[in-house]
Amino acid sequence: MPDMPWTTPTAPAPDAEVYVMASRFETKTLLGALRFALRSPGIVLQIRKAPGAHGAALRARIGARTFLTLSAWENRDALHRFARSEPHRSNARAAAAFMKDSAFTFWTAPASELPIGWEEAERRLAAEQARY
Question: Distance (Å, rounded) from C-alpha 6 to C-alpha 21?
Fold first, then answer.
C-alpha cells in the first residue's frame, strides 16, 4: 500500500490556527496490518468529507506493521466529531483487537505551515512517547 499524500479537503483561512494530530499505530501481526490497511482508504474518504478537516496524510509500513497518520483540523471539536462518527468509530473499536501499540500527539500551528511534514510529526510523536 503506497502512502496517501497530504490532501486538503477544505483550505483554512491563511491567518487561521489549526489543530494538528499525529498518530502512530503498530499492529500485533502482519494480518492485523493488512486489516488496518484495508480500512484506511475509507477513513481517508471520510476525512475528505468531514466538516472542519483541513488536511490529512497516511504513511503505511505494512511489513513493519506500522502506520502513521497526520491531520489538521479547524479545532479540537472538529477532530472529536470526526473520531466519533462512522466509519471511523467502528473501525477504531475493531482495530483495538489487533493493535500492539499506539501513540498520539496534538498541537496547534499556523495554517501557513500546512502541510505539516512527516519529520515534524515523527519528532513530536517521539517526544510524546519519551514522556511515558
Answer: 13
